[in-house]
Specification:
Strand content of chain B: under 5%
Radius of gyration of chain B: 23 Å
Distance between the termini of chain B: 42 Å
Number of helices of chain A: 3
Strand order of the largest sheet of chain A: 1-4-5-6-10-9-8-7
Number of helices of chain B: 21
Helix content of chain B: 55-70%
Number of strands of chain B: 3
Strand content of chain A: 35-45%
Structural class of chain B: mainly alpha
Largest sheet of chain A: 8 strands, antiparallel
Number of strands of chain A: 11
CATH topology of chain A: Protein Transport Mog1p, Chain A
CATH architecture of chain A: 3-Layer(aba) Sandwich
CATH superfamily of chain A: Mog1/PsbP, alpha/beta/alpha sandwich
Oligomer: heterodimer
Largest interface: A-B, 38 and 37 residues
Number of domains of chain B: 2
Helix content of chain A: 10-25%
Shape of chain A: globular
CATH class of chain A: Alpha Beta
Order of helices and strands of chain B: HHHHEEEHHHHHHHHHHHHHHHHH
Largest sheet of chain B: 3 strands, mixed
Structural class of chain A: alpha+beta
Radius of gyration of chain A: 17 Å
Shape of chain B: elongated
Order of helices and strands of chain A: HEEEEEEHEEEEHE
Number of domains of chain A: 1
Chain lengths: 190, 392
């Protein structure tokens, strides 16, 4: 009995339980967006909400792709623990690219991490106009220097935001090409 | 966790504890320097653990490494600590929360959110003096030797040692959280308040400034409660500290028996020291999205110094809050900031965004053009140019 319990605990601790494989081929994200993958990614179940998904190639501490899809006026990108409603920024349809990135910064720094936007420019995304931004961040939990890139667009009054982040040394360069390939295949569904 | 850390200021360690009438018995000079504890003692064990934490802190990427500012704060701590100066080491940590803490081994941390909130050197001295009060009062040792705290110490050591494998910041974050276990008794807080206030009076600062630190904090917390309903009641700070209003009143009463508002608070000297850092600290402050606290803070700083930078950031706080009437409030602040020499060029970008949203295309275009002329190489220049090309 206790041996089985031990096996269960080890399985849970090893993190296997939280991941499932997605791709290759066409994959839909929260029924709102589709991508065509040339290889497999790992979907993290804990990052799943009604309007977001979290994927990784080499494991979550090392790289992370986050989709926020179909965020409507008045909705937040995510929940923030121990904050009152008015302390959580909400998406508004009047927001410009700058303000969307400002909103993202709040979520990227709520754990005490530092954030520095490096670039913000128009870019094609999901078959239309969008924007692309780059940033660096020192992650509070382990003080790793992270590098990130995100794409965003607004369709039918709803926000679609896709962000990739990995440690500046090695993992960003290793996987950012795979991320850009995902981005170039993004199609917003109906 | 940061939510819990807010205002944990002065709740941290300060382990060596003893007399409760230190300065009352010997006004002026502090007691003699403290000996390093025996390694085999309870105190010695915690001391060596904290020394390892200090080594990690020295390597932290969140440490502010500006030599001049570090030297300034260290000099001030030294001036207050007298003979204890060689035993105290100051670390400035980039974090937008009001916090300072003194570990029993003399590791004194000051967070940038606290530095941003101090109006003058006297107020910073009051906070440092308070922490030195815990240190020389050896308050944490009293806590440690209190039977009730022994279990807490066991948990503290276990968790801190466990966290040691996690990495510098993880471990430090644990320490900050666990500091709550060492929350001082209210008597210790009152004693540290008194010691701090006497130290600043002896150093020639107006003792009333110690009371103002708490008044300012209370005003921020009340404004946030009014805006968001976040009463701060879950904060360790409010659980472990004497009522801040009562505390502030006690210090104001004591100041009246001392030198009151006599003395130089050294406002200009302080402003000069933090000038080069304020923008980053204010950017960090805005990302907290505690509009009640931030607007109260900026309005207070504005009463002290009506400059373009502060006006701009107050405008930013209104723009980001985005409640009814906030766009108009932000535009008023930007207008007031514009003629001042220290108005950041980003004011034109923010103003342009609000004008664009309001449909005032000609004005928005002029604002964006001005931003681009001042910051032609800005990281977002292409985006701004695209706003202009879209005919706004």
């Amino acid at each position: 009995m206790s041996r089985w319990l031990l096996v269960l605990v080890v399985a849970l601790l090893s993190g296997c339980a939280g991941m499932s494989k997605v791709g290759p081929g066409e994959v839909t994200v929260r029924d709102s967006l589709s991508v065509t993958l040339d290889g497999a990614w790992n979907q993290y179940s804990i990052g799943l909400t009604r309007k977001s998904e979290v994927w990784t190639l080499d494991g979550l501490p090392l790289d992370r792709l986050v989709f926020h899809v179909g965020i409507a006026d008045g909705e937040a990108l995510a929940e923030l623990p121990q904050r009152k409603d008015r302390q959580v920024p909400k998406y508004q349809t009047t927001m410009q690219a700058h303000e969307i990135v400002e909103m993202y910064e709040v979520f990227a720094t709520h754990d005490g991490s530092s954030f520095q936007r490096q670039k913000l420019a128009p870019a094609p995304f999901a078959g239309g106009d969008g924007f692309r931004f780059e940033f660096t961040r020192v992650r509070k939990s382990d003080e790793l220097e992270m590098r990130g890139v995100g794409y965003g667009t607004v369709r039918g009054g709803k926000l679609y935001l896709v962000i990739f982040e990995a440690p500046r040394s090695h993992y960003y360069a290793r996987n950012v090409g795979r991320f850009e390939a995902v981005v170039s295949s993004v199609r917003i569904r109906g | 966790m940061l939510r819990r850390q807010f205002l944990t200021g002065c709740a941290c360690c300060g382990l060596l504890g003893r007399s409760s009438t230190l300065l009352a018995a010997t006004p002026g000079p502090l007691p003699a320097r403290l000996e390093r504890p025996e390694p085999g003692s309870d105190e010695g064990g915690l001391w060596s653990l904290l020394s390892r934490e200090e080594e990690r802190l020295k390597r932290s990427r969140f440490l502010l490494r500006d030599g001049a500012l570090n030297a300034y704060v260290a000099r001030l701590a030294c001036r207050l600590a007298g003979d204890h100066c060689p035993d105290i080491r100051v670390y400035i940590v980039r974090s937008p929360f009001f916090n300072a803490s003194m570990a029993p081994n003399g590791m004194l941390q000051v967070w940038t959110g606290l530095l941003l909130r101090m109006e003058n050197e006297a107020q910073l001295a009051a906070v440092l003096g308070h922490e030195i009060g815990h240190y020389v009062g050896r308050h944490s040792l009293e806590q440690l030797r209190d039977a009730k705290s022994r279990t807490a110490l066991g948990q503290f050591l276990g968790m801190a040692l466990g966290a040691a494998g996690v990495g510098a910041a993880g471990s430090l974050a644990q320490l900050a959280l666990l500091a709550g276990m060492f929350a001082y008794s209210r008597e210790h807080e009152r004693e540290a308040d008194r010691i701090g206030q006497e130290l600043i009076a002896t150093a020639g600062y107006p003792p009333i400034e110690a009371a103002k630190v708490w008044q300012q904090l209370v005003a921020e917390v009340k404004a946030e409660a009014e805006w968001s309903g976040d009463a701060g009641s879950r904060s360790i700070f409010f659980a472990s500290h004497p009522d801040p209003e009562e505390r502030s009143q006690a210090m104001a009463n004591r100041a009246a028996t001392m030198n009151g508002d006599g003395g130089d608070p050294a406002s200009a000297a302080y402003a000069g020291q933090i000038r080069g850092h304020r923008r980053q600290w204010l950017d960090d402050e805005l990302r907290r999205r505690k509009a009640g606290e931030t607007i109260t803070l900026l309005e207070r700083l504005l009463r002290q110094s009506d400059d373009g930078e502060t006006r701009f950031f107050l405008g930013e706080a209104f723009r980001l809050r985005a409640a009814d009437g906030d766009a108009a409030r932000a535009l008023r602040e930007y207008a007031a900031a514009e003629p001042r020499s220290d108005c950041p060029p980003e004011m034109y970008r923010s103003r342009g965004m609000l004008q664009r949203q309001a449909g005032d295309t000609a004005a928005a275009s002029a604002s964006f053009q001005r931003y681009l002329s001042l910051r032609p190489d800005a990281d977002d220049a292409e985006m701004i140019r695209s706003y202009l090309q879209e005919g706004i």
